[in-house]
Amino acid sequence: MSRCLIQLIRRFRIPALFCSLAVLICELISHPYAAMGICDDGPYIVMTRTLATTGHLIYNGWATPILGWQLFLGAALIKLFGFSYTAVRMSTLLVAMALAFVLQRTLVRTSITERNATIGTLALVLSPLYLMLSVTFMTDIDGLFAIVLCLYGCLRALQASSSRAMIGWLCFAVATNAICGTSRQIAWLGILVIVPSTLWLHPARAPARPHLAHRPHSQRVHPYLPGRPLPSASHRGNIHPSDSQEPPSRHRHHLRIFRGLYPACDPLAALPPRLPPRTNPA
Question: Measured between alpha carbons, how far is 249 from 227 in angstroms, rounded to an integer?
Fold first, then answer.
């Protein structure tokens, strides 16, 4: 019975849903209604109302972020429920709930247990700062959502069981970060930093150093941490393929495209093979 319950919880992502609902319940208890601007979201809400009524993006006041998709989400709620400060700010609450769900799944993907991942997620999403920003129209929650979503896609790419799945998750990470990052420019660090780091860490890079493939597994050195041996197959978890495995030929051109977009993410590929140890002359 307990095993079936555990499988049911994992299948329907009950802990992640619990984190999302915890954010919603806490916000409803706090009664977050105000017919006035909070922090800097007053001009942002005016821009959203202008977008909903005219269909044009007109920057107002001291708006320094691009805002982007955040404005369109708020305008959609205005179309559905009419204009009010609360209706516009509820768009941020929806993003905050989605962020809680994705963050919990991201922590689980890093080999943290469901319980610890849930506790870590609740520690963030139930913090006073997070709860306060979740019911404003500021860009902080949307920017964090873009970064966490990109990190989740990159983790799935590292743990993908095939090159096709890896390419798909990398495309997902790039696309979501490019779109969601329009709310706050700093969120584009996902494309500039996280995605290149994923390409640099992926095991598919190892065939660029063929001198590693001819060694026994116990004598191979980690290609990204010099001096550290590769973990055994039982400790690698879901990361696949292994260091000596070549990606299918039909997917190699996709890898070349990504590496062409990020030429700095593979700095070790150009290094010459390690020289054999010197032997004393007879």
Answer: 31
